[in-house]
Amino acid sequence: xxxxxxxxxIQVSKSSALVLLGLGIYLAYLHRLGLGEVAxxxxxxxxxxxxxxxxxxxxxxxxxxxxxxxxxEELDISASLGDHFLIYLSSIFAxxxxxxxxxxxxxxxxxxxxxVAGGSRYDASFASVAxxxxxxxxxxxxxxxxxxxxxxxxxxxxxxxxxxxxAMMVFSVSAGIFFVGICFEERWLQRMVSFxxxxxxxxxxxxVDREVCSGAVxxxxxxxxxxxxRERRGGLLASLxxxxxxxxxxxxxxxxxxxxxxxxxxxxxxxxxxxxIIVFQTFPFGLPGGIGLVEILMTALFFAVGVSIYDAxxxxxxxxxxxxxxxxxxxxxxxxxLLRRIERDRSCREPSESSSGAxx
Length: 360
Known about the structure:
Its main location: membrane. The protein is 81% helix and 0% strand. It is an all-alpha fold.
């Protein structure tokens, strides 16, 4: 087995068909809702606020890249902020084009970091991504708690909305505790990897070297334990600070979208809706980025917290245009740039290696 993580492959025809299916579902929903009324809500859009939403989405990526970079530095991974930024965008592209939750995006991050950061180990890259996920989950959980508290005590949201938010919170916290557990308990992770090898061999029709996998898990655990050392706590706190800034920018994208339509909404209501949507997007529904289903649920939740149904649909379109299509487009360009860079570096190495071999 190759010791390197493989880049997730995008089946263009399949992904395109699924994207069209998702768009068809949402267009059918909008047609039933009232396309004319939704279009009327969009007509009054303020361009300065919309461009502010675009800028905030890029700031969100930048802050999350800074958070990840701070962790990578603690694991002696050498890569520039620009590299982290481009790789993070690439992971967004993979998440939105490959219908497998967030697994594809994290795999892309590990792959590109291993290629771009010269000399970095893949187990350290794994650990940096895993630790990044744990740290960025902290402001998400806090925002979820604040949003649920607002819905329960400060709004007249219907019972189904409260139930959905509470269920998503329980699910995400439980999944987070499980994820943290396997990241710091080698026996659990070794068992999970051993259990997954057989199905992976059948799916990809390739033989997996179990000793290599076991060694990679041990290296991953050493890297994770390294992050718990006392002298590295300052780096983790700095990473958490950047993650909080990224989460604030993410929420402010929706706030700017609402302001672009001159619609008043509580920031806590946005927190509640986002909490449900972000967890919902991780479910393997088979549609890239949850296209169609996410838009319908977001529209329904914004309506549930007091926004008119047509404004809710209009602001959902703007939010998804910024956070899905805009970032996916930039992520696609970033992915092409990184792949060409890796190929160029490989081409430069091969002549030098050939010359060295000829001189022996």
